[in-house]
Hints:
- It is a single chain.
- By secondary structure, the protein is an alpha/beta fold.
- The chain has a single domain (6-290), classed as Aldolase class I (TIM Barrel), CATH 3.20.20.70.
- It is 38% helix and 18% strand.
- The protein is built from eleven helices and nine strands.
- The protein has helices at 6-15, 18-26, 64-76, 87-95, 129-135, 152-170, 194-205, 224-228, 246-257, 269-272, 279-290, and strands at 39-43, 82-85, 103-107, 139-146, 174-184, 187-190, 214-219, 235-238, 262-267.
- Helix 2 (18-26) packs across helix 4 and helix 9 runs parallel beside helix 11 (279-290).
- The chain is globular, with a radius of gyration of 18 Å.
Amino acid sequence: MTRIDLAALRETRAARPEAIGRAFAERRRRPITRGDGRLFIVAADHPARGALGVGSNPLAMAGRDELLGRLATALSRPGVDGVLGTPDIIDDLALLGLLDDKVVVGSMNRGGLRGASFEMDDRFTAYDVPSMADAGLDFAKTLLRIDLADPATADTLESTAHAVTSAAAAGLPIMLEPFLSRRVGGAVVNDLSTEAVIHSVTIASGLGASSAYTWMKLPVVDEMERVMAATTLPTLLLGGDNGTAPDETYRSWERALALPGVRGLTVGRTLLYPHDDDVEAAIDTAARLVHPTS
Length: 294
């Protein structure tokens, strides 16, 4: 794992906050897709929603130095196209000089805190479209959980639609991560049945005044070919937590990556905190699945 000089990072933030803006202004950008047209994005927007756990460790992502070190390692590996995060993490990575030639994805709605009574009222409390355009970010991302029994879902749907409309007007690609969700024993649980994922895709696809810049970010579920038959939107697969045996997870990704419309992976905890703690090996395995001819 790459070592991060956290003391220097903290000093820069305290004494020279303008360095963050300068880092974005000087960042070397790249096309969203190139070569094989596929994307491998490493995700790290979980902490801002209070979702710090990985496997049996409820605070695995709480240590910022370790998280940044794992991200630095991941971003150094061939085949990794970019990173997804909230402003605090993206700003850290910019100050560390790790965003050159990478697709930078801004996470927008983190207000639906994990375990909160208002979790389904998933407000847009991080990036917005103007701030991403100003900083030169390349992509936007929203989480869209749909609970038909929770009235707060209506506000989240409306806010997401406004975000899609704004992103399309700015020419900013935006990926939607939809789920049908419900409360079980007070906790929000995503329905990962094939039928539920298909319904979530069709609902999310219709949001906003234009779908020209909309992408999907979808879980890998049974009968994934039926899911992909429900949309023409470009799709990235999400990895979820690392509760499944790695070989089984990689096989499921490989099968899904071969489907029409699937353009790559957006994976976080599964690869940043792998079972054997070998971040390089986990990232390299996933990269070979996304970019098999590279």
